[in-house]
Fold this sequence. Notes:
By secondary structure, the chain is mostly helical.
Amino acid sequence: MIRIKVNSSDKRQFSQQYGSSIEREHENTYNWFVNEIKKNKKIPSKEEFFFRIAEDHLQEFPDYYTLLRVMEYILKDIENKNEADFLIEWHRK
């Protein structure tokens, strides 16, 4: 296993740039949102907006939220353990 040390500001900058490029998948939802405002002269409800974001993810990958839940569980487990112990345990499996 190779470890590369990256300072936290570089990691955050990379994550933000990468994340912004990934989240462009919501461009159609953004366009819908803008068009709804223009057409109806009001902002769509939060529920409708969040529903459409969720739908974007599900269209891209039907198991998106199941896998997100698994990833969050793993990340919380890492936070609760020493990272080195987690990596050793993971590598042994």
